[in-house]
Amino acid sequence: MSDYNISRVSPDDKRTNKLIDELLSGEGIRRDKNLDYTCAMFDEDFNVVATGSCYGNTLRCLAVSSAHQGEGLMNQIMTHLTEVQFSRGYFHLFLYTKSSASRFFSDLGFYEIVSIDNKVVFMENKRRGFYDYIDRLSENKKTGKTVAAIVMNGNPFTLGHLYLVEKAAKENDVLHLFIVSEDVSLVPFEVRKRLIMEGTAHLPNICYHDSGPYIVSTSTFPSYFQKDEKAVIESHALLDLEIFVKISKALGINKRYVGEEPNSQVTAIYNQIMKERLPESGIDCIIIPRKETDGSVISASTVRKLIKDGDFSQLSNYLPPTTLRYFKSEEAEPVIQKIREADQVIHY
Fold first, then answer.
1. Would you give the distance in Å from CA 236 to the centre of its chain?
2. Secondary structure class of 194 (helix, strand, coil)
3. In whole angstroms, what is the distance from residue 259 CA to residue 287 CA?
4. Is there a contact between 337 and 308 (Cβ–Cβ < 8 Å)?
């Protein structure tokens, strides 16, 4: 056990952050753009010999200098980060790692959820966490010849979303609607969930599910050991599909509906990978052209832009009555203010 010190690193500490970047780079890792806590371990000369970070309930950017590997430093970094996470109220922890390092983290009490192409492994600190989640989903299992699924963020729920859900519900015996519960959107999860359920309440064959921590948004998927942004998108899509296939087997899902997104590079790559990979697991991937109004596609990005610009007169062209009623209510004022203050409301 080393006697090196571990301490939190402030974003304003330019010297230490530069040393961390150099350490990460030396280990083939880039600093992730989403971090809310970073620590470093220092030797007697105040050089950084190990580091680790957190974002929400995940551990990220874990590295030990090659000159100090084998000294048990990562065990100490992991202990420190776990204590920090517990103190912040996060007890169910997740990490992403290279396949070559997964055995090491297994020895530290993390369990594999899925791995993709011998590149990325998604792990958690609960032995049966993912399987318990699938068991809970199975409690709402409904049988049918055609069982479809949609994964939806709904930030906010639009007429475009409604069109997609109505089409899938009409064409199938059962529709499982997974609502992304990660709370990183401008519209909070509880509001998104309520508006989705209110807007689709007339469809009797829908089973609603919270996505939990397993269906991860592109905004929080880590980029720190991916060579470029395209590789990040591809890895996220492949990981998401591995998880989705396991869920589908438990629920008997044989179709997945997604909306076409002509203005989004991320969605275009994601949809293409789904179109190629899902049939290999016996699941049809059905890409639905986006619903249009006045010659332009209906998207949540457009709605957020209208709200940001204070242009409420056009919202009725994009929103179902339930969502429109919410944004005209006093309850929506904090969300409207948050959208107006956001630097970026359009996702590419």
1. 9
2. helix
3. 6
4. no
pLDDT of the residue at 100: 80
Residues 97 and 164 in one domain: no
Cis bond leading into 156, ω under 30°?
yes
User: Each residue of 277-319: pLDDT tens digit?
Assistant: 999 999 999 999 988 887 788 888 899 999 999 999 999 999 9
Number of domains observed in the structure of the chain: 2
What distance lies between CA 12 and its chain's CA centroid? 28
Range(s) of the domain holding residue 74: 5-130
Task: Please provide the average confidence, as pLDDT, over all residues in the chain.
Answer: 89
Do residue 105 and residue 155 come from a single domain?
A: no
Q: Is there a domain that residue 346 lies in?
A: no
Task: Tell whether 244 and 265 lie within a shared domain.
Answer: yes
Gyration radius of the chain's alpha carbons:
22
State the CB neighbour count (10 A cutoff) for residue 215: 20
Q: Please tell me whether residues 219 and 318 are part of one structural domain.
A: yes
**109 and 144 within one domain:** no
- Amino acid type, 207: C
170 and 299: one domain? yes
Long-range contact pairs involving 95-101 (C-beta distance under 8 Å, separation at least 24): 95/58, 95/59, 95/60, 95/62, 95/122, 95/123, 95/124, 96/58, 96/60, 96/120, 96/121, 96/122, 96/123, 96/221, 96/222, 96/225, 97/62, 97/121, 97/123, 98/225
Q: How many Å apart are CA 313 and CA 291, to the nearest integer? A: 19
Residues 62 and 196 in one domain: no
Is 245 in the same domain as 311? Answer: yes
